[in-house]
Amino acid sequence: MKALAAVLSFAFATVILAQTPAPVPTPKPDDAKPERLRKLSKRERKARVGKLEVRHQDFVGDTEPIMLGPELDTFLTLETDAQRDSFIDDFWRRRDAITGSTNHAFKDTYYQRLEVAKSQFKAVASDRSRIFLLHGPPVDALRTDCGRLLQPIEVWKYDRIPGIGSHVRLLFYKPRYANDYRLWNPLGGSIAISDLLATESASFQGDPAAARRMASDSASPYAYISRIQLECTNGDEIMRAINSMVQSRVDQLKLFEPPQINSEDMQKMLRTMVIANPNAPKLNAEFSVRYPAKDGSRTDVQMMLLVPRKDVTPAEVGGAEVYTIDVTGEVLRNGNLWEKYRYRFDFPGDFEGDKLPIVIDRLLRPADYTSRIKVTDANTGAEAVIETPLQVPEIFTPTNVATGFSPSESDGLKPVATLPARSVDEIRNDFTAQETRLRIVPPDDEIVSGIQTIETMVTGNSIRGVEFWLDGRKIAVRRAPPYALDFDFGIVPQTRRIRAVALNEKNEPITGDDIVVNTGTDPFRVRITSPRVAPRLAGPSRVEMDVSVPDGEELQSLELFWNQTRVAEMFDPPFVQTVTIPATDGVGYLRAVARLKNDTIPPTEDVVMVNTPAYMEELNVHLVELPTTVLVNGKPSSHLTEKAFKVLDEGKPVPLAKFEYVRNLPLSIGMAIDTSGSMQPRMDEAQKAGAQFFEKVMKRGDRAFLVAFDTEPQVVQKWSTKVGDLHAGLAKLRAEESTALYDAIVYALYNFQGVRGQKALILISDGKDTASKFEFEQTLEYARRAAVPIYAIGIGIRGNEADVRFKLSKLASETGGSTYYIEQARDLQRVYDEIQQELRSQYILGFYPAADVKTGGKWREVTVQASEGKVKTIKGYFP
Prior knowledge:
The chain has 879 residues and is of the alpha+beta class. The chain has 5 domains: 2-254, no CATH class; 274-392, Immunoglobulins (Immunoglobulin-like, Sandwich), CATH 2.60.40; 424-560 and 575-610, Immunoglobulins (Immunoglobulin-like, Sandwich), CATH 2.60.40; 622-662 and 842-879, Immunoglobulin-like (Sandwich); 665-839, von Willebrand factor, type A domain (Rossmann fold). Helices cover 24% and strands 33% of the residues. Strands 7, 8, 9, 11, 12, 22, 23, 25 and 26 form a 9-stranded antiparallel β-sheet that branches. Helix 18 links the parallel strand 36 and strand 37. The longest helix has 19 residues, at 81-99. The protein is globular and about 105 Å long.
C-alpha cells in the first residue's frame, strides 16, 4: 500500500503542478485540399444539413462521432442524392480499408454499437457513448459505491486501444449538478482532483492551495488512499484507473479521434463526381448519342462530344503542344447512381479539325437512364456540364469482326463489341452465325499441365482451316472442324502461349485468338481482349481492354498506344477506345499500359501485333538476370564494382549486359508453412514468429502471400500489401494430416509467375515429404524455371535425416537461397533477420545467351565468381 501511495503521491503532484495543459501541436496546413472544397462554417453546415433528405440527415447524425470535418464538408458539397449515396458507400469502404475488414463489416459493427449506445447512454454525443462507438465495449466496467468520498464513478477496462496502449483503464465521473458521466481529465490540476470528490469529502474544493498541500503531505495521500481502498467498492481499481490516466494524459487526447483517412480520398471523391464549379469559365460542347452495336445482352451507348478547338488552351512543353480534355461522367437509373467513369483525352497541338472529337462508349442493358457528363479543359479549368436522358434500345444488328465495324450501315462505320474469352457460354452468347470469328475455349483448370485438348469456337463461312501455335512455334494445322488440338504442356506447370489463327480458302490468315496459361496469381494484369490476332486491320478500329487490380489498390490510369503514340488515357471501365489504324503503316502494334496509384508497384502492359505479313517462329532473346548476394565475413557486401564479377555460362565467360547494386527495393515474398500433424507442438510459435516477420520486414511497396500445406497446399492469404491480412491468414493455420512438401513448393512458386523485382519464397517444414504428387526432380526443375530464391527452414530435422537435408539444401542452393536448421520455432526470428538482410542488399547481374542457344533448350549451368566473399545466386536457367 505504501508503494501505491508513493506512486499516487507523485502522480497527484504531477497533475497539480501542471496547471497549464501540455501544448497541443499546431496542425500542419493541409496542402492537399481538394479543389473547390472549402471548410464550411457551423452555420453553413447546419443550413445544408437541413436541406437534406431525412435518410441523409440521419446518416450525418449517426456518424458524427467518426466523421472527419473534410468528409462532412465534402458530403454537404455534393449535388445529388445519387452522389450522396455513392459517398456513403465509399465512407464505409474507407473504414473497412483502415481496419482491414471487408464487405462493410465496419458499418455493421458500428450500427450494432450505435443501437447499444442509444439504449444505454443518455446521449449519443456523451463521452461514454463516443468511447463505446469508437473503441467498442470494455472488457469490464466497474461502478463505485462510495458516495461519502467520491462522485459516482465508472472504470472501463480495455485490453488494448490502438494509439493508447495495453491494459487501458478509463475513469468516468458524474460532475456535481450534472446528469451524465464525463471522461475524467487529469490535466485540470487541483480542479481535476476535486472533481472526483463528493461534497462531504471536498473540504478543499475550489482551494488549489489545499490540494497542493495534500499532494505534498506524505500522510494525506496515504490516508486518503486508505479510505478509498477501505470504504469504496472496487477502491483498488479506482486508484489504478486514476494513476493510469495520469500517466497517459497526453495519449488521452487521441481517445476521441475518429479513424483517420487520407485527404486524397476526399480529393478523389470530388474528381469522380459531376459537380459544377460556378466559378469556372464556360466551355461549349456539342452532344450526340447513338447505339451502334451490341455486346451480349448489353448495348453499346456511343456518346459523342465536339469541343471547339478555339475554346481550349493547349499546354506547351519544350515546344510541343497538347490539348487535354478531362471527362467525368455519371449514369443514373431511377435516380440511383448506376455507374461512373473518368477519361482523359490528349490531342496533338497540330490537330487540324475545328472541333476536338471525344467518343465515350458505355455498355448498358436496354432501359431508361440519365447521363451527366462534365467536360473540362485541363489547362484552364473551363468546363461544361451536360445532362441528358438516354433511352437505350436493344440492338440486333450483326457486325463484322475483321474490320471491327458493320459494312452495311448507311450512316457510317460502327464498332463491334467483343468479350474476352472466359467461358463457353460467354463466347457462345457473343457470337452470331453471320460473323467471322474464332475464339479459343480456355482450359477449365487454373494450373494446366500434362496433355490437354485445346478447343476453339468458330462462326462464319470464310474459315477453311486453323493453325495452332505454341510459344511462338507453329505446331499443326487443322483443315476441317472441329478445330481442336491436343497439347502436351509438360508435367510441371509452365507459362505457355497458345495461338489459333483462322485461314481462308487462299490459306491467308483472317482472324484468330490467343491465350496464355499458367500465368500465376499476380493480381495486377492488363489484357487487350480485342483484337488479339489482326492480320488485316485499317481505319477506325475498336480496341477493348481488361484490367485486373489487386485488392486494396486503385487504378491510376490505363494508357493505349498505337506504336509509340499514346491515343487515349482511361480511368474507369469498360476500357474501350476507337483507334484509327493507318492503312499504309504496315506492321504495327497496340500496347496497353496500366498503372496503379501505388507507385511502388511497377506498371503492367500487354501488346498485340497488327498487320503482320505471316506468323513466323518467334525468337525470344531474353536477358538472363542473376540476383546475387556476396557475403563477406557473413554479411552482405555493397562495395564491389562490375569488374569484381565474372559470369560463366556452361563454363564459358559471357559479357555482362546489366550490372546494378540494389538496396531496399520492394519485396514480393511468399511464405509456405507446414501445417501437417507433426507441426502441432510448434504451430503457436510458428504463427507468432511469422507475424513478427511480417511486422518487421514489410515496408511500403512490399507484398506477400501465405500458403499452408498438409495433405495438399492451399493459399490462405493471396497477395497483399497489408500486414493485417497476413496476420489473419496466419491465424487460420491448423496442424493436421500429412506433408505434401513438393506440391507446396510448386504451388507456392506458381504464384510468382509474372512477378518482377525482388522475390523470395520462405519454406518452413519439420519433416520429409509424404503426400506429394510431384517428385523431387520435377520440383527441382520447376524451382529452376521459377528462379525465385528459396529459403528453406527445417524445424527439428535431425542430423541423421540426410536425405531430407540434402533435398532442402539442393532446392535452396540451386535458386540462390539458403537452408537453416533450427530446433524450435522461437528461433525463426533470428533466421528471418538474416533473410531480410540478404534480400534488401543485392547485385543484379544480367547477360544475353549466345546466338546458338535455342529457346526451349535444356537447363544451362551458370557460375558467378567474385573477387572476394561467398557468392549466392541462381545456378542456371532454361533458355
